[in-house]
Design goal:
The complex is a heterodimer. Helix content of chain A is 0%, strand content 52%. By secondary structure, chain A is mainly β. In chain A, strands 2, 5, 6, 10, 11 and 12 form a 6-stranded mixed β-sheet that branches. A 4-stranded antiparallel β-sheet of chain A has the order 3-9-8-7, with no helix packed on it. Chain A is globular. Chain B is mainly beta. Chain B contains no helices and 11 strands. In chain B, strands 2, 4, 5, 6, 9, 10 and 11 form a 7-stranded mixed β-sheet that branches. Classes of the chains: A mainly beta, B mainly beta. Chains A and B meet through strand 5, strand 6, strand 10 and strand 11 of A and strand 5 and strand 10 of B.
Chain lengths: 114, 113
């Protein structure tokens, strides 16, 4: 069985500050891990994914995430927050192979303040 | 743009009525999924399909059925809608050989009164 825990349903940062969104996972198989972003009234957009090729994954819009097997974590970071980063972020875990079913975390709403 | 359209985008219906939501893709991708999104729950898988007439249940399939008679269309049916099915419904696909990454449609907001 797979599960994802996102710590903090709401995170607030100042513009220019570091963004850190936390994700811990549980999986019985080597996982595929994803971060998605959702802007208001839109669908989910893929930010980045981990597929075991490299532990540090770079995504779009300056975001990156590091896979740490020992901590079962896949935290999302961005060095400097921008107002346009305000959105809801979802971490998801999936197994390998076709028909991959994803299990999502409950989401973290990021607020960026001036 | 994931190349997915969902219809309708918004619907209000009454308890006990049947409702069908449509997901349409134009590139003949094999895998398609239906999720529901609710506050505090993230997204939860309802049903998925791995080909024409090949479907399977997800985590929250009770009260829902699906059909896929053509590659491009994946239909989600609520046989008798209940207020607990008020939600935002998202369709997702995988593309080509990358069957691990899902791409999402714009969603359908369904309200059951």
């Amino acid at each position: 069985a797979q599960s994802v825990t996102q710590l903090g349903s709401h995170v607030s940062v100042s513009e220019g500050a570091l963004v850190l969104l936390r994700c811990n996972y549980s999986s019985s198989v080597p996982p595929y891990l994803f971060w998605y972003v959702q802007y208001p009234n839109q669908g989910l957009q893929l930010l980045l994914k981990y597929t075991s090729a490299a532990t540090l994954v770079k995504g779009i819009n300056g975001f990156e995430a590091e896979f740490k097997k020992s901590e079962t974590s896949f935290h999302l970071t961005k060095p400097s927050a921008h107002m346009s980063d305000a959105a809801e972020y979802f971490c998801a875990v999936g197994g390998t192979g076709g028909g991959n079913k994803l299990t999502f975390g409950t989401g973290t709403q990021l607020k960026v303040e001036l | 743009d994931a190349g997915i359209t969902q219809s309708p985008r918004h619907k209000v219906t009454e308890t006990g009525t049947p409702v069908t939501l449509r997901c349409h893709q134009t590139e003949n991708h094999r895998y398609m999924y239906w999720y529901r999104q609710d506050p505090g729950h993230g997204l939860r898988l309802i049903h998925y399909s791995y080909g024409v007439k090949d479907t399977d249940k997800g985590e929250v399939s009770d009260g829902y059925s699906v059909s896929r008679s053509k590659t491009e269309d994946f239909l989600l049916t609520l046989e008798s809608a209940t207020s607990s099915q008020t939600s935002v419904y998202f369709c997702a696909i995988t593309k080509g050989a990358d069957t691990d990454t899902q791409y999402f449609g714009p969603g359908t907001r369904l309200t059951v009164l």
